[in-house]
Amino acid sequence: MGSRINRIQQRLAKLYIDAFLVTNQQNIYYLTGFNLLQGDGFLLITPDRAIIVSDERYHLALEEFANEEVVATISQDYYTDLNRICQALQVEVLG
User: Fold this and answer.
1) Rounded to 5 degrees, what are φ and ψ at 54?
2) Helix axes 4-11, 25-32, angle to 10 degrees
3) What percent of the chain has pLDDT over 90?
4) Tens of pLDDT along 60-77?
5) 25: burial class by Cβ within 10 Å (0-12, 13-18, 19+)?
6) What's the rounded Cα separation, in Å, for the pair 81 and 92?
7) Contact between residue 27 and residue 47 where contact means Cβ atoms under 8 Å apart
8) How many CA atoms lie within 13 A of 74 on its CB side?
9) Among 44, 55, 73, 92, which one is least packed by beta carbons within 10 Å?
10) Domains in the chain, start-ordered, CATH in brackets?
11) Global pTM?
């Protein structure tokens, strides 16, 4: 049995989406174990990676966050960076 993130990654193609966006704090915590306050970032899951995007307030916590599945990045504008990431990863359909 794979991790929670891995199980989502395996279902993306069946759902006809290129990536899955998680914005609810409880769902982010459930999937990653990282605790963000509501509205302080998001988790983007693609077939081969999971990315937490948050702001500078979480810099130290993200550095200490030990999860080999998840990459973290700091942003000042979450949704501009979401757009940039999706373009770079060629995400056309976001769930």
Assistant:
1) -145, -175
2) 100
3) 59
4) 888 888 787 888 888 888
5) middle
6) 15
7) no
8) 9
9) 92
10) 4-88 (3.40.350.10)
11) 0.90
